[in-house]
Prior knowledge:
Elements: H1 2-17, E1 22-28, E2 31-33, E3 36-40, E4 44-48, E5 56-58, H2 60-64, E6 81-84, E7 92-97, E8 107-113, E9 126-129, E10 136-141, E11 149-154, E12 159-164, E13 169-173, E14 180-186, E15 194-198
Parallel strand pairs: 1-4, 3-8
Antiparallel strand pairs: 1-2, 4-6, 5-7, 7-8, 9-10, 10-13, 11-12, 11-14, 14-15
Amino acid sequence: MKTRTLLSLLLLSISLTGFSTTFTITNSGFTFSPSTLNISVGDNVNFVLAGSHNALEISQATWNANGTTPLAGGFQTAFGGGIVSSSQLTVGTHWYICENHAASGMKGRIIVGSLGLPENQLFTNISIFPNPTKDLITIKVSDKVADSAYNIADASGRVVLAGKLSDLTTSIDISQLTNGVYFFQLNERRRQAVKLIKN
Length: 199
């Protein structure tokens, strides 16, 4: 019985790693190359950087402001680079900077799609804001999906909230959720999820 369990675990680990790829991001002076990387769930990213550069995950708002406040639970490499494992690269956009050179515009994005598609490719008519948020999110959609059912799942995939969009603009109270990363999905668009951060 013990041998069978170990064999099952080994086969599962081979099947999961068999489909993963490790992508490399380097630096050219004060820019990341590539500055935008599209990957699939399960892929890893190896940062190969000069000794004065690191990669630090931040929120989109911090990224837009050229700030350096780390994202709670986000990834960070050492100066000189390192591997960011697939467990840290959930579906959605991961905004990152070089901690020493964000003000110079040294920043990038890793977009993780569930099927190798960039985040929001199937969500071109949906916007969620504010993100990150503390208690309330607003969903704006096109009329094509205005009456769709939705769910919000935690990082393990467990659905923690579900409902139906009431109009082109719907507000959802997420104050009862603990701080962390969640994923918003429309039921008819289950192949893609939008990363949502509650803080």
